[in-house]
């Protein structure tokens, strides 16, 4: 089964020059913990509720901080829509992330896939990823 068969295609993006308050409001409206950051029709980063808490609030920065200042850009992970679910699961597991932006081969954002989406497609594939994603450590630790 391919990523396109399970991904959410109604993904919303936020601009890097928007504020983290704008991002938090969008997350609230969408009931989402992560929003892809897009600029000129390209994926340039991801911003998560954790990025806002750790990179802004914990450092004393306010709601007018730009998304660009808080977003994750280093080692930005994504998956192609025609990759299989096992590749998505492996990437999530390796990088300890629960969702990945989905791009087409022209590198345009076409969706987002989460562990939950994968579990709807193939529970055995998502189970292994969940075990590894939930382990402490990885690139998003607080230290």
UniProtKB/TrEMBL annotation:
SMART domains: CBS. Gene3D superfamilies: CBS-domain. Residues 7-64, 71-130 form the CBS domain. This is CBS domain-containing protein. It comes from Phenylobacterium kunshanense. The keyword Oxidoreductase does not apply. Keywords: CBS domain. CDD domains: CBS_pair_HRP1_like (cd04622).
